[in-house]
Amino acid sequence: MRGIEYKHLERIEGPVVITKRSKGVGFGEVVAVYGRDQNRRLGRVVDLSEDWAAIQVFGSSTGLSADDSRVEFLDRPMELRVGTGLLGRVFDGLGRTIDGFGEIFSSDMRDINGLPINPYARVYPRDFIQTGISAIDGMNTLIRGQKLPIFSGNGLPHNRLAAQIVRQSKIRSADESFVVVFAAMGVKYDVARFFLDDFERTGVLANVVVFLSLADAPSIERLITPRCALTAAEYLAYEQNMHVLVVMTDMTNYCEALREVSSIRGEVPSRKGYPGYLYSDLASLYERAGKIQGSSGSITQIPILTMPNDDISHPIPDLSGYITEGQIVLDRELTQRGVYPPVAGLPSLSRLMKDGIGPGMTREDHKDVSSQLFAAYSRVKSVRNLASIIGEEELSALDKHYLVFGEHFEQDFLSQGEYEDRSIETTLDLGWKLLSLLPREELLRIKEELLHKYLDPIIAQSPQNQEDLDEEDPEKGRLRNAGNRGR
């Protein structure tokens, strides 16, 4: 019989308490735990056996004793109150408002675990989302309904990049609503304050739903935060027909919390101590992105994670890469050279990019320009490795041209201001200016008609540029084009 309180706990292990199992209790159910001080602590069922239930307490278990405590099973899962008043509000990691304006006016409660999406009902992602960042829009394009994580490292500017994406992201259709759900897990107070201050100062907070779980919050709260955020996103996307971008940082903190809870429960660890179900747990979050039939809305995800020791083969980025459709990798060497955002050109990719660019979506030359920039930058990396062995002065004239291109590519294309919002047209035009630094016969990935349409006018405006290339004098080209970097 439900509703009966169970007195006495079997044992207490940190934030986990063990008690007798109530008949019909379910995994993930919300529980109220009362100590001798009669304070009400909420918790969640995290493990079940035939006779016992393990409960993770939201908060400290200080003051609880096995003899004087009691447990009440509340016969409901963890839920989030949703409604049209979500936008512009700030919640804690458990979905409780912390902005001082009280609860939102709605009686609609949703299970934070969501409902599985029928694969047959999914609609293939095809539409372009503009972030205003050339390294993403031009070469690793974000598509509506995609999961595109950012792989970063400790000390890299992923927080600044996340704030810039939230500020600048938009869709090109003026008659469709676009909103952002932002979730931060295990972040320090100053980082949380940075995000809130930035959103308020730039005026985007009215179009954002914020969930914050600070570093001093219990580990179990970090496991709840992304599920609350995705529940809010599902309501806005599938009930209100909005296009929702979900930015989640830092997924490494989420996985560390999962490992901690798994260890407390005594589970057999897998790679580097993480539970064996890390893959399926991450998939339960990432696969809540997408578009479904019957709704014009969509959910796009940008999970941000910091790779321990910059190791991309670590279980967290490794498994995330299997589930998601590409990745954007931040490079420490570029950061040290003053490039922001330090998006690594070659390890980054967007697997759905090809389906969301081109005529009617971005521009007809997008695919060719992106492919040529990738190929040229790959050649730059090879030439730099060669130069480190034989010296730059021993390189061929063509290789020196590629060195000049690489310098301009990093300083003018990849690098941009933190508050600089570039349209996709500006990004592609800048790509053409960079490609004009290379001999025409090197542009093998671009159709001839596109060369006539976009490259020839640039050369006509700056004929000396092509003459320098024909004379195989890249140093002169470097000097003459220093003022035409497309800033």
UniProtKB/TrEMBL annotation:
* Domain ATPase F1/V1/A1 complex alpha/beta subunit nucleotide-binding per the UniProt entry, residue ranges: 132-350
One Pfam match, given by its short name, reads: ATP-synt_VA_C
Q: Decide whether keyword Ion transport is in the record.
A: yes
Q: What region holds the ATPase F1/V1/A1 complex alpha/beta subunit N-terminal domain?
A: 11-74
The record, for InterPro entries, names: ATP-synt_VA_C, ATPase_F1/V1/A1_a/bsu_N, ATPase_F1/V1/A1_a/bsu_nucl-bd, P-loop_NTPase, V-ATPase_su_B/beta
The ATP synthase A/B type C-terminal domain, residue ranges: 355-454
Q: Does the keyword Electron transport apply?
A: no
Which Gene Ontology biological process is one annotated for this entry? proton motive force-driven plasma membrane ATP synthesis
The UniProt annotation puts the region (Disordered) at: 462-487
Taxonomic superkingdom: Bacteria
Q: Which UniProt keywords apply?
A: ATP synthesis, Hydrogen ion transport, Ion transport, Transport
Any one GO molecular-function label of the UniProt entry: ATP binding
Q: What does this protein do?
A: Produces ATP from ADP in the presence of a proton gradient across the membrane. The V-type beta chain is a regulatory subunit.
Q: Which family does it belong to?
A: Belongs to the ATPase alpha/beta chains family.
Instruction: Supply the name of the protein.
Output: V-type ATP synthase beta chain
